[in-house]
Amino acid sequence: MSDDIDRAVERLRRTKSLLVITGAGISAESGIPTFRGNDGLWQNYRAEELATPWAFERDPVTVWKWYDWRRGIIGKAEPNAGHLAIKRFEETFPDFFLITQNVDGLHGRTGIRKIVEIHGNLWRVRCTRDNRTSMLTDVPLKTIPPRCECGEILRPDVVWFGESIPTEALQASYNVMSLCDTLMVVGTSGVVYPVASFPETVKDKGGFVIEVNMEPTPITNVADVSLFGKSGDILPAIAERLPH
Ligand code: BV8
Question: Residue 72's CB: how many other CB atoms inside 10 A?
Answer without folding.
Answer: 12
